[in-house]
Amino acid sequence: MIRLLLLALVATALPARAGEVRTAKLRALCFEAVDGLSDVLYVGPDGKSTTPLKLWTTSFSDEIEIRMDGGAVRFAVPDKAPDGTEILRIVAEGQAVEGARQLALFIPQQGKIPYRLVMMDDSEKGFPMGSIAAMNLAPTPVRLRIGERDVQLKPGARGSIPQPAKVNDRNQANVEISFLDTKGAWVPVNNTRWLISPLKRSIAIAFLDRKTNQPTVNSYDDTPPWRLPKLP
To answer: How far apart are alpha carbons 72 and 104 in whole angstroms?
Structure first.
């Protein structure tokens, strides 16, 4: 059995050092739209320059180029102060990870800032083709059985699941997702099959469904844009 806590797939946030400006490529995935927000602005180091970003809940955004000061990553929307002054209202903020490619996961949260920003290394070194990036946002441990892989994640944990070798003739792996109940027993909540391919990567996010109040898992497949064939 593989037990994964905080693995290298989700890189350690860089220490913020003011004045250290660097550039990177960034894509995003919005776990769930909050208040209809689908268009946000990346806020540059000067607090004024912005780059538009379209958020999608079913696929990854287009890649944009960003500049960061000390690793800070902030997104905002146009708004007005009580006196009518135009301002940028922060809707998500976090710390960049190492590397020239960043993946920003917009996770809804309670409070003044509607999104928690989870940053990942989007490079193939940090997020290899064929692998599955897993994170548990549920308040209970989750267990993922994918082919011969057997992975447990505590609440708040993240990990990398290597591509399984046990697949059927359609390159599909059996998947069983279970959560730990209060009696210490694993309770299956989903049995399905996932397509396994070295030509894509996947993200699996365990969470507590706000409508049913039951833990579940959403998964997203990704073929990064630099892997797609270029049109003539």
So the answer is: 12
